[in-house]
Amino acid sequence: MFTKNKQALPTDIDPDNVPQHVAIIMDGNGRWAKKRLMPRVAGHKAGMENVKVITKAASRMGVKVLTLYAFSTENWKRPNDEVHYLMQLPVDFFGAFMPELIAENVQVQVMGNLEALPAKTQQAARDAMADTAQNTGMILNFALNYGSRDEIQQAVQQIAKDAVSGKIEPESIDDDLISQYLMTGFLGQYADPELLIRTSGEERISNFLLWQIAYSELVFVDEFWPDFTPTVFEQSILIYQHRNRRFGGLK
Ligand code: FPP
Question: Which cofactors, by name (predicted)?
Fold first, then answer.
């Protein structure tokens, strides 16, 4: 576990070995709130504030893509009030933080089944992407109403359609082509995260980026998402930098 590794780590990050794409499962908002005898949505609000903090930290460390799991295709199972609150978060987040995101030169992207979101959430996502489209810095990529099996299903359907129509040859279906058809396809060479972090002590993937994390380093930290500070983030990067990545070969 992370806390056991923490003490042994040196303090400086190698700037030449910062993961280019970091993906985060932002878990533990509800437990963070419960610990403080607050309603669950207070945890989501604190989580939203932390998105801004970690976005800046990632951008300043030289991360190229930060993908955040904000709402999964399974999160609709939550009580209506909570779902309603979560759907309002992008509206509030982009409403409040857009000037800072622009000042930070961050480009916002939103991937997932966006058509199924309430109109106001879709609009907030579209506006954020349009307002930051000219920015050339880090891509802040929200996974919103995203599920990896849903993503793979859509990609397979589209590949099948394109094969039937003659647009692609079945023999041309390889790793690269499949990557292009997934929702992360627009990220090109950065589509696969080098590092996946999950907060809150849970150690599962929960239908996130199943194809893309084939060779990602997984780091599970104990802190709830609102407590995931830039320091804990840096420590996670240090853990990544001390991993021996072999991609199935020998070092
Ligand atoms: C998981 O914690 C968290 C979520 C389902 C929502 C994550 C959303 C945010 C952090 C805010 C996103 C911000 C924007 C701008 C879209 P949980 O509620 O499952 O926590 P628990 O496991 O302790 O109950």
Answer: Mg(2+)
